[in-house]
Specification:
By secondary structure, the chain is of the alpha/beta class. Helix content is 44%, strand content 18%. It folds into 2 domains: 101 residues, Response regulator (Rossmann fold, 3-Layer(aba) Sandwich); 144 residues, Response regulator (Rossmann fold, 3-Layer(aba) Sandwich). The strands form 2 sheets. A 6-stranded mixed sheet has the order 7-6-8-9-10-11, with helices on both faces.
């Protein structure tokens, strides 16, 4: 009798556990968070793609219902934000760069909607959170590789706009290069566009003509120029080594997953608050990482980079954050 009761209790507990598991697994589907994203560029663009991929992954896991608008002009951005909020979207993700006041005004008008926006500034109000791609740590590591690789001691950097988000990555890269090679010099240019591959390519050619034998490809187009001239390049945000074989030495990668996953969970659990989600792009949270083509890098340099990377992860080394505009060496 006692044995039968014991088995009955075990079966009952197993059944309870099974039901709980089924309820938990189904919760993301039954209570999927409604998320809308607004992008000023195509979802294929490197920075935008990181957000889109992370949200798509959450949708495929059944955690969110996801809609988005791409190629939205700044003049239309506020209208699109309001349309999504009026439609009942619970979380709106996008970029506040260039329209900070308008985006924050929309947030104050929709207190029941959560906003997670790329921004150079801090959170505000009761529902406006910010994020950014803080991948200065892997950018520093990629700089070590570039500094060790250059033979002319001249490295070219082509960026989009001289804003803090770009400046800090370039400065970290330059610091890393100098740590490996104190003799290295830099040529720096901004094309004043987020997406103009021909202009970026032209700028890269000019730097190569001046003697640069390593290129920092913050923008699309630079690696194409590197391939044509047979020089090496350092990638940014995404890994393009498969598209440019034998050219990309390393890339500082951004994974938006840790950021959006936390924001989605906060909305789902009704605890979303204005916060700075920037830290979740750090390497320690899995938001930043370094991709290396070790076949193109000497073993001793690979070992050096991995040692510094481990120090970063262990909290023994901190990469300097410098938002000032980098300039060419005289």
């Amino acid at each position: 009798m006692q044995k039968k009761l014991l088995w009955s209790r075990r079966l009952m507990l197993a059944a309870i556990a099974l039901v709980a598991t089924m309820m938990t697994a189904g919760a993301s589907y039954a209570q999927a968070v409604k998320v809308a994203a607004i992008y000023t560029l195509p979802v294929e663009q490197q920075w935008i793609s990181r957000i889109h991929i992370a949200l798509t992954a959450a949708m495929e896991r059944g955690e969110i219902e996801y809609v988005y608008s791409e190629n939205v002009a700044n003049t239309d951005y506020e209208r699109v934000m309001r349309e999504y909020a009026d439609a009942g979207q619970q979380l709106i993700v996008g970029e506040a760069f260039g329209l900070e006041r308008a985006a924050r005004k929309v947030a104050t008008d929709y207190a029941d909607t959560a906003f997670l926006m790329g921004s150079s500034f801090g959170p505000s109000g009761d529902n406006f959170s910010v994020f950014d791609n803080w991948i200065h740590e892997p950018a520093y590591l990629s700089g070590i590789i570039a500094g060790a690789a250059t033979e002319s001691n001249l490295i070219g950097l082509v960026g989009g706009y001289a804003i803090p988000e770009v400046n800090r990555l370039m400065n970290a890269f330059m610091d890393g290069a100098r740590s490996a090679n104190p003799e290295v010099k830099f040529l720096v240019n901004f094309i004043d566009s987020w997406y103009d591959p021909p202009k970026a390519k032209e700028s890269a050619f000019a730097m190569m003509d001046a003697g640069a034998d390593i290129m920092y490809a913050e923008r699309f187009g630079v690696s194409d120029a590197a391939v044509e001239r047979g020089v090496k390049a350092i990638g940014n945000v995404i890994d393009t080594s498969a598209d440019y074989p034998d050219t990309i030495l390393a890339s500082a990668l951004w994974d938006m997953g840790p950021t959006v996953d936390r924001a989605i969970a906060a909305v789902a659990e009704d605890r979303f608050e204005p916060a700075d989600y920037g830290q979740y792009s750090f390497m320690g949270y899995g938001g930043g990482s370094l991709a290396m083509d070790e076949s193109l890098i000497p073993d001793d340099v690979v070992s050096q980079v991995k040692a510094v990377e481990q120090d970063i992860m262990d909290g023994l080394f901190r990469v300097n954050v410098n938002d000032t505009e980098p300039v060419s060496d005289n």
